[in-house]
Protein 1
Amino acid sequence: MNIYLDYAAATPLDDNVLAAMQPYFAASFYNPSSPYAPAVTVRREYEAAKAQIAAVIGVRPGELIMTAGATESINLAFGAGSGHVIIADIEHQSVLAAASRHEHTRVAVSPNGGVNPDDIKKAIRPDTWLISIGLANNEIGTIQPLSRIAEIIKQVRAERIAEGNTTPLYLHSDASQGAGQLDLHVTRLGVDMLTLNAAKVYGPKQVGLLYAARSVKLQPQIVGGGQEAGLRSGTENVAGVIGMAVALTQADKGRHAEVVRLGDLRNQLQAKLLDAFPEAVISGNQKHRLAGHLHISFPGLDAERLVFGLETRGVLVATGSACAANKGTRSHVLTAIGLDDATADGSLRLTLGKGTDQAATDQAAVHIIEEVSREKARVGA
Amino acid sequence: MNIYLDYAAATPLDDNVLAAMQPYFAASFYNPSSPYAPAVTVRREYEAAKAQIAAVIGVRPGELIMTAGATESINLAFGAGSGHVIIADIEHQSVLAAASRHEHTRVAVSPNGGVNPDDIKKAIRPDTWLISIGLANNEIGTIQPLSRIAEIIKQVRAERIAEGNTTPLYLHSDASQGAGQLDLHVTRLGVDMLTLNAAKVYGPKQVGLLYAARSVKLQPQIVGGGQEAGLRSGTENVAGVIGMAVALTQADKGRHAEVVRLGDLRNQLQAKLLDAFPEAVISGNQKHRLAGHLHISFPGLDAERLVFGLETRGVLVATGSACAANKGTRSHVLTAIGLDDATADGSLRLTLGKGTDQAATDQAAVHIIEEVSREKARVGA
């Protein structure tokens, strides 16, 4: 049995989620657009699932557009306007790629990965229409001060009205990594658009959503039969959306207890590793960080070798984000927070989740300490 | 137990498909981009599934872009260029909507729903870059002469080369409705791009693909982590694609026998209904029609009333395409083939599938004859 410490890359489908999805594979397989009663029931259950999701984030079901995952959702958000956009320097590749289709500013972050709201303010131009800041970073776990950025946006909007500048200014956040650990209520976050991904909270892959406030003028990217209020066509993923509703509801319900539990395990693991290797570098904001995230660098070591060494010991960890992992490139996040190459290249991302218990982190600590020691001896560090 | 005769709208997940998908929900849930062996195995199995699908349609796996269903696939195809496009007047709404983003010509069809290749030829302009013709119509089942259209395209390409016109000319086909009943080998079809949908062949919803020949210059619609060779980002739907591979392989394997079986049942049903109602109108090409399709109109009756009447008898049928069904609009397909309003409004689409047996069609015939007779008596027809 492996010890899986890469929950930020993928999560197994929860039993309750799969159980909720099962009926929609074969028994209730109907097209929700068909007119007869069994299909109308499927439609109703699909809409009920959306309402359940909407309740978790405090919005109306009609403000949710279901998508095939977070990446599509982010692309849809970035398609809602044209002009200048602002993102943080440590955004996920999907945000970087979507932003690259616009004139954009990448705002630098502090060494702990935090965005300074004042830097956002300085970057805003008269033609800036979108600011997209991930709620929590997928590599180092730093949580961003979204509500403070939202305050600034509110001020700028008021100034624009006074000046007669009709350019809208939206705040979007990819909250995929925060689901199940952070409050996702959009009013409290202060966002106009929010991206969520079922696959990060023990739901199915390729199921996600974009919340967009009514003020946002979305442009459909995928046109056709007019599903999702015409904003995203295609026969609905009934099983997937019903699965996402269960996954998100469950994750949100158990959130407070899970954050305490994961934070405790993570802190123990961090303390043990730092105790063994005082030279190790912990990245991410130590106060405002995802409870399950531990990003640790062993300067001078080769993280890829560590990943494979740990794998032979049954411990599965990541070198960086899973997306960038098999491309052999250095993480832009680690460069942005100012890690030198020797430190960045020796970085492991350990992310804990539902299946992680005390025994798992205890054993993981032993294995990591042994493996890092072995590698240090090998390279003479 | 209902008698389901709406297989063109949705199909239940096949047991073997679900069995093949199950391991990837929880046991093998890894992100295919992660570096450790269990994830690499998932990557390999995902690629093997693509290779299996590629073999069915006679292409290389690298020429397949997995999408969240047919609609996304069609949108991706229509995004591969700019200029004039040609479609048939009876295309699915997703093709109509995608075409509406370009200057386009809708070529008229014959009363049996067939596209005349000569009409396509006449519609081609020097700036035409795409011709998109569905392999088989989802409402009336007519199969189009794609290979003859491909021949014309070949000639035009040769002429363009001679003239120094460098505009490419691609043939795209949405073959979603043909899978499991028709040969999908792209060389024999003569297409440059092909759209398929798992949900129409007892596979999962929101799983589809676009085949594109290497000569086609696709533009990614969804950008991000660079999955699907950069043409469609987002963590892969491992379970879904593995399910599609099983679904498509099975459907193709049993195709010849199933076409004979369904054609026989459909012809019996058609004969019984025509025998009872000689005034009924059968639409679609009687020779070149999907074996499971029966489109029948009862002039002067209200198809929606028939659908609900039949539903109370346990027979589930459609009035038109499922997508248009609950919008209360008249089908553009029926208008295009020249049905007058009184005939179009009395149309049922009966589509047979794997679960349809002799008993089902026998009983369906009895119920339809009773219900149509009752409605005829009611309106005094």
Note: Chain B has a mean pLDDT of 96.
Protein 2
Amino acid sequence: MSVKGPSALRIADVAAAVGGSLVGDPETVVSGIAPLDRAGPGDVTFLASARYASMLASSNAGAVLVSPQLADTPGTCRSRIVVDKPHEAMLTLLPLLYTMPDRPFAGVHPSAVVASTAVIAPDACVEAFSVVGAGARIAAGAWIGPFSHVSDGVAVGPGSRLVSHVTLYEGTRIGARTTLHAGTRIGSDGFGYVSGKDGHRKVPHVGRCEIGDDVEMGANCTIDRGSLDATEIGDGCKFDNMVHVGHNCRVGRLCLFTAGTMVAGSTNIGDGVVLAGQVGVAGHVNIGSGAILTARAGVISDVPAGETWGGFPARPHKLAMRGYGALAKLPDFMKRVEQFMKDRRDS
Amino acid sequence: MSVKGPSALRIADVAAAVGGSLVGDPETVVSGIAPLDRAGPGDVTFLASARYASMLASSNAGAVLVSPQLADTPGTCRSRIVVDKPHEAMLTLLPLLYTMPDRPFAGVHPSAVVASTAVIAPDACVEAFSVVGAGARIAAGAWIGPFSHVSDGVAVGPGSRLVSHVTLYEGTRIGARTTLHAGTRIGSDGFGYVSGKDGHRKVPHVGRCEIGDDVEMGANCTIDRGSLDATEIGDGCKFDNMVHVGHNCRVGRLCLFTAGTMVAGSTNIGDGVVLAGQVGVAGHVNIGSGAILTARAGVISDVPAGETWGGFPARPHKLAMRGYGALAKLPDFMKRVEQFMKDRRDS
Amino acid sequence: MSVKGPSALRIADVAAAVGGSLVGDPETVVSGIAPLDRAGPGDVTFLASARYASMLASSNAGAVLVSPQLADTPGTCRSRIVVDKPHEAMLTLLPLLYTMPDRPFAGVHPSAVVASTAVIAPDACVEAFSVVGAGARIAAGAWIGPFSHVSDGVAVGPGSRLVSHVTLYEGTRIGARTTLHAGTRIGSDGFGYVSGKDGHRKVPHVGRCEIGDDVEMGANCTIDRGSLDATEIGDGCKFDNMVHVGHNCRVGRLCLFTAGTMVAGSTNIGDGVVLAGQVGVAGHVNIGSGAILTARAGVISDVPAGETWGGFPARPHKLAMRGYGALAKLPDFMKRVEQFMKDRRDS
């Protein structure tokens, strides 16, 4: 998230760190990572796809991480590191060159308002203007950013982080090593009413939200609490910004939900499901493990495990694509067919 | 919203409270409500739809609320309560078994920043880190949650609640018994510019927002102020999370807007209108009372009162569904017709 | 944004101020601006489009700003001002009749938490409960509203405003005269993971966000930081509420993004591009300067400069409209063609 300013490394040390083989000058010094078109002599860049190979020739990078397939791509970098998976090598390299964000202090900022019955681990950090309610528990290494609202009875697991302006409604449980970005709301009441002559009567929501371990949610997401029991988000899920999940949903492990995706209430989603950008899922449906919904898909029925679906109403992606293709040809097709029928009728 | 821990009730007392007839053991004690598949011996569950009838047999619930039509559904619960509308009975039962959330105290938290000209009813609650501006009025029984920004000249009606991190821009008026969930913004400037050679010049927004009585809005909604007069949301409207309403809109009474619905500026919406998930409505259109827009509908023209429309561009729902059905058949249809025409030409 | 109460003006002075010619009583006094149907004798209204001409006859406005083409529209206002561009005249008139919002004070509110290494211009305003991090710089005339989170190393340019509850992540740069509405998040981590057997490993985001001059963003927007370098939003861009821009995007000058628009990562957008409501743009595509994407467009490929595209997948708007038109006729067309083929086969 943050950057405290890069360190500097000999490229030979970089090669050793990522387990790659060095070609060229071992003494090149790099202090940053940059994309091909913006890198300078003090940067290492990377080339992992043939699509961008032509950009290497004009790159000013001091060094490049390159996959074996592209090792001989023309370019003028002083040093090359040939490595199987340049993107994974980047993950190793980033913490060596950049300082990763960490808790600014251990303890509770004097401005925070903490209930006397809250339990906060000594090495946790509670930043300025945070509210921690009665019976809340903040585990070891947790980082509660400014303007956090940790309501009564909430549990935040070890090493988890609320970045800023996060709301955790009453009873929410957050697992370990989970990050919630600014403005995300966990445990708001679900959209449930009993409608009658006297208007829409609210269904009180007495359930809660349970978020697993190693989850990351982007900015301004909303996850509603269950009406009676829990809305559940499984371990390892990663949500982009502005994702919404309705009450009573159960989302499995390792799902990826891209920005603007919205899931209505009481829907069950398996493990490893991918919902691409602006996908919508109706309530009370089942999406099987490993299913992929392509961007803008609108799901109104069950989706079998492992299948790729798209379009609205969502159906198998290939069929949806065939439909769009046919639609593009439809106006001319209609004109030709109308003419054909007219000719036959006239003849 | 919150739960302070359930009480316990004899099932005979539950039957009396909901006006149902008891079958089985009158001494069963329940302390919670849970769905069929998660209820235990200390829970009451409910069965209101034949769709879920098969789940009763394997439910471990101590008691079940069941509609007369489903009264004889096989199952092993110790006690049954037969009642006309199990969902409405639930609304009666929930406050008996659960403590509903209420203002934690009356008065103003010492950390709040309140203008000297603000008027706050003695029994209202203003929680930590709230800002209340000049001339603002907070009525009796209102509950201003932490991190509320109540700007100058705002009026919050009796019994209304700002849950957390809510922003009310200058001059906003909130009616009685209205709840705004975390991160909702009322009265932000509308999207209005006069574009010319020197860029987009902002139209100053001197109007305001007026939200009626008994409204509920979910988390992270945005309602823009009027450019000259008011954007109005009528009594009894219920909005899900991430709903957006543009400047100058007038929304009638008892409307339901589901998550992700967005209404552009200067649109008029009647009473009792339902906008399902991710609906979009263009600016300057009229939607008649009682109209229903199905999920993902994109409205670019007026919608008559009482009609159900869908699709994009939105049209009567049945036509939209026929269109989707035809589109699904289109690729094969085209192939057959092309072959037919070829055959006839060849012959 | 806000209004402190209108002043009062002689209509002859209004005419002089907007450079229009006065017809009727020069002594009419107006103290507000209102739409045709809501204006009273103390208001000036405006008529710029023939579409609303019939409303002038029944308007109770004291005066009207009217374009030369509509100067003779029937109506009973005491005074008329004929002016070339009534909407632009309104921009001149609004600050004369209404007090525009301004910083409530110069300096730092005593409740704010400001790092000792932050540099704040003497005439800047930092409101209650704001956090300003190490090395942050707040320029002259900037207005940091309540609950602002200005992280370490952020720079806010002269005259810019954070309305309320805004988060600026580490290293964000905001230009001059830029306004960010309530709940907007700048610089959250992008949605980037390397997926493998052990789940989705986060790509640390060491880039930042750079927002230009004269930008306005609505409420609850999210702009992600770059993974390695900067996500850039150019001068003069205006975003509506709930707009999302992904990591590494470069958006040119003077673009207009309407509510609910979402742009995935690494996409390049030229100058003066218009993305209408609920548009989605895939990652790694290019949208040329001056392109317009109509409401709900879903862009999955490059869009040439100056073209208007729409639909999903987006294509030239005219083709998309022809497609929707054909789709509406498709069910009947299919029926007729099937009958035709049957008849010919039978014959």
Note: Residues 108 and 126 of chain B are 5 Å apart (CA to CA).
